[in-house]
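Hi F.,

I've been meaning to write this up properly since the lab meeting, where we talked about keeping a consistent format for the predictions we share between groups. The idea is simple: the sequence comes first, exactly as it goes in, then the structure tokens exactly as they come out, then a line or two of notes. No screenshots and no reformatting. I'm using this chain as the first example so we have something concrete to point to.
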Amino acid sequence: MMPKLTQKNYETIKIYNQKERIFELRGRIQTLENQLKMAMNGLFEICNNPSPDFNRILYAREVWHKVKELNK
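Output, unedited:
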């Protein structure tokens, strides 16, 4: 027979689940921060090493500025 779920037990389980969710979200944030750094490095390389494709350079610079704004 299962013990009766009291309000205190319910709140404890709820807090535990919230902590698990926070831990999961922190992991996702760390992954996104790493991906952002990699994207910024790639854009930096495109912007500083021009190739014959001028439109690609302009697009990379535009994205670079948008990413810098988001990173603030």
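Notes:
The chain is about 85% helix and 0% strand.
The helical segments are 7-48, 54-71.

If this format works for you, I'll send the rest the same way.

G.
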